[in-house]
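User: Could you check the structure of this?
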Amino acid sequence: MAAKRKAKRKGGGAGGSGARKDDRKGGGKDDARRGSSLGEWVRSLLVAFVIFLCLRVFLLETYVIDSGSMEDTLLVGDFLAVNKLAIGPRIPFTNLRIPGYSEPRRGDILVFDPHHEENMTIVKRVVGMPGDTLEMRDKVLYLNGAVHDEPYVETIGPRDYHEPEMRWQNEFLAGAAGEDYLGTWDNWGPLVVPADHYFMLGDNRDDSIDSRLWGFLEGWRFKGRVAFIYFSYDRDSFRPFPWITEVRGSRIGDRVR
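Assistant: Sure, the predicted structure tokens are below.
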């Protein structure tokens, strides 16, 4: 009987030791599975981030209108989708551009980094192409000697005065520059647009700081062509939560021209 009890104790001890070993093996497998799942999650997150970064850098970017310089084409509170591939995305931290499937065109509404202000992005309309001769008389734009039809233009009142910063225009006047030439907001030129430069104007001519003041824009500064409005709300509303209560549903999805 004593021998049998000893055998049972030995058997029980062996069985107990075996169970603990199996538990350790099972726990190791669970830890490995958790580690594998965490690794896959991190890899998926990294892949998603890289895809997002590539899309933002090379294909599509967003922009929010925060001034009235492009009214009524674009309103304060319009959220824009900008097609960067259309004119070719810029390689980050360089002036180099990957070729796009089109070139900037007269009438395009483009987003760009201006040369006169760091850390700023602006949206304006292209009105002057390289080689064009531009002139404005009493708010009317003349392109290569003829009146340029601009049905999108908005004017809100008198503005015609000279700014000292407009003296850059003297270097680009067609013909001899007169000593008494003083370009103003509504009367200037004729100016000849140099190669690989563009003349940019806001549609709301009396509320826009544009090429009339800061000059021609280099082509490499373009970031993309405005494609459509993906969201819009009245940012000037005094109602609470205007991004919910003042949504401009009729503008969402509109193509910008």
